[in-house]
């Protein structure tokens, strides 16, 4: 549009001026050379996705599953449109008047997948084939083959199937989702509503989405139309490489509203390799509970930027404890990978081979230290936190600077707030309504066991640490709180004492 406006302006000038001189012509040629080059450099939408789709469609499959479910036999209720005024009437009539017998029937569901090996390995979502008694894969040429589950992983919602083909299958390979940029064109292929191979296009709308689907959420978001039945289908870049596996949509109506989510290849590819090789996924385990580093916490710890994962608890006997990692440490780097956000750390550790020893770069007491950690295997079991024994109790006291009334531990308080025998610290008896503590969610019955990474057992200990903070010229104190949700660190601004 800008070029058209300029060109029109030049044409208007041409009609009112005398014929161009040599210099004027040279200037116009220079203008055209400079500004005319821009469209060639700009990334524009492809004229058509047809060549790409023709190449990729044979590698994308439809997956149908059947599951035997117990139901009632006899006469079936007539199928009526959803919301029909007769729906409730017929349902009530048949339930009252028609005898029903228990019987077994088959429930069918549809999804998508794609071939990643010409020998017959197929990738899909775990929820597509979960609890299936039979799995059938339909190819682009209409051929249908029975499939078996090679392995699946509920934490990332991935599964690998295997068919026995009579010839080499057309397959696709993974690309690097880490270099995909927001705004890049993508193509999604799947089986929406059981219609068969369907191609849609859009852009990468966002990266690193957390939709609370699992512990390793790191979804790509797209505006390409993705509907029911697209689950397990591939998301391609314009080079025809798989950069995502379509998994979920955000939709109040159940249909596409332009917010779809895909598991990035950086997450899925290592999982799929393990599933093919071992039929299961072995993940690394560090043995820590972590939380985000807020700007207030970063300020108290002397960190220039709020990034990394703050260790709130260390699991007894775990790799972190053996490596002498402590609560209050901030893990900035694990191996060669920087921990930009708190939720990056579980994925980084999980992807580290079990048994490997890596360097963890840690921020402790305003300086960088390195701890060597031998990564253990994550087991599906409850993790227990280690606590030490409490010491003598003291009288309750109001700490005005935090807006808290506090008391050292007593047998009566332990019983009143149902605290464990191993719990220690200072008990919160009252929280002032408009205090910094109230704003951060501290509640009556919580325990404060550290201030500025120093153990506290009495209100006097806390006041002593607050005084140190004020004398240093700072206005934020780092407090570790144990509550119903577990241990966490809070950066509290100190009020007037």
Your description of this structure?
Among the domains are: about 175-280, Beta Barrel (Thrombin, subunit H), CATH 2.40.10; about 285-375, Roll (Pdz3 Domain), CATH 2.30.42.10; about 395-495, Roll (Pdz3 Domain). It is of the alpha+beta class. A hairpin with a 2-residue loop joins strand 27 (about 475-485) and strand 28. Mean pLDDT is about 80; it is low at about 1-40 and about 380-395. Helix content is about 20%, strand content about 35%. Strands 5-4-1-2-3-7-6 form a seven-stranded antiparallel β-sheet.
Structural class, from secondary structure content?
A: alpha+beta
* Net shape: elongated
The biggest beta sheet is recorded as:
7 strands, antiparallel
Radius of gyration, in Å, reads 31 Å
Low-confidence stretches: 1-42, 381-394
Helix tally equals 13
User: Which band does the percent of strand residues land in?
Assistant: 25-35%
Q: How confident is the prediction overall: mean pLDDT?
A: 81
CATH architecture of one domain: Beta Barrel
Q: Which CATH class of one domain? A: Mainly Beta
Give helix % range.
10-25%
What is the β-strand count? Answer: 28
Instruction: Describe the strand arrangement of the main beta sheet, using strand numbers.
Output: 5-4-1-2-3-7-6
CATH level-4 homologous superfamily of one domain = Trypsin-like serine proteases
């Amino acid at each position: 549009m800008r070029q058209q406006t300029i060109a029109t302006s030049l044409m208007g000038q041409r009609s009112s001026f005398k014929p161009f001189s040599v210099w004027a012509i040279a200037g116009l040629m220079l203008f055209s050379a400079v500004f005319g080059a821009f469209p060639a450099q700009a990334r524009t939408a492809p004229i058509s996705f047809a060549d790409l789709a023709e190449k990729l469609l044979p590698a994308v499959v439809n997956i149908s599953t059947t599951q035997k479910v117990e139901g009632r036999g006899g006469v079936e209720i007539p199928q009526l449109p959803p919301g029909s005024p007769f729906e409730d009437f017929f349902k009530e009539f048949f339930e009252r008047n028609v005898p029903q017998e228990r019987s077994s029937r088959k429930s069918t569901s549809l999804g998508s997948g794609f071939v990643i090996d010409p020998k017959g390995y197929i990738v899909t979502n775990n929820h597509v084939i979960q609890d299936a008694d039979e799995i059938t894969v339909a190819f682009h040429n209409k051929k249908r083959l029975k499939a078996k589950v090679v392995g699946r992983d509920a934490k990332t919602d991935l599964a690998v199937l295997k068919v026995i083909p009579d010839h080499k299958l057309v397959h696709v390979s993974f690309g690097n989702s880490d270099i995909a940029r927001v705004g890049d064109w993508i193509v999604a292929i799947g089986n929406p509503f059981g219609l068969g191979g369907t191609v849609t296009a859009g852009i990468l709308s966002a990266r690193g989405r957390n939709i609370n689907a699992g512990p390793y959420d790191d979804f790509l978001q797209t505006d390409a139309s993705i509907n029911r039945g697209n689950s397990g289908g591939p998301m391609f870049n314009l080079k025809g490489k798989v950069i995502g596996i379509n998994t979920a949509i955000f939709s109040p109506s159940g249909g596409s509203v332009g917010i779809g989510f895909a598991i990035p290849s950086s997450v899925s590819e290592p999982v799929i390799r393990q599933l093919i090789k071992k039929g299961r996924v072995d993940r690394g385990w560090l043995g820590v509970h972590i939380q985000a580093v807020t700007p207030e916490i970063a300020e108290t710890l002397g960190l220039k930027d709020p990034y990394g994962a703050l260790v709130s608890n260390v699991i007894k006997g775990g790799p972190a404890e053996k490596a002498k990692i402590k609560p209050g440490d901030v893990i900035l780097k694990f191996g060669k990978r920087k921990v930009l956000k708190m939720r990056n750390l579980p994925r980084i550790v999980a992807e580290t081979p079990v048994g490997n020893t890596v360097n963890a770069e840690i921020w402790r007491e305003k300086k960088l230290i390195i701890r060597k950690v031998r990564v253990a295997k994550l087991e599906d079991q409850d993790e227990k936190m280690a606590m030490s024994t409490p010491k003598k109790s003291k009288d309750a006291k109001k700490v005005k600077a935090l807006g808290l009334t506090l008391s050292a531990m007593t047998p009566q308080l332990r019983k009143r707030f149902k605290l464990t025998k191993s719990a220690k610290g200072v008990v919160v008896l009252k929280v002032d309504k408009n205090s910094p503590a109230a704003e951060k969610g501290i509640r009556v019955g919580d325990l404060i066991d550290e201030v500025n990474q120093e153990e506290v057992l009495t209100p006097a200990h806390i006041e002593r640490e607050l005084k140190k903070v004020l004398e240093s010229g700072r206005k934020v104190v780092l407090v570790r709180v144990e509550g119903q949700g577990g241990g966490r660190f809070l950066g509290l601004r100190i009020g007037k004492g």
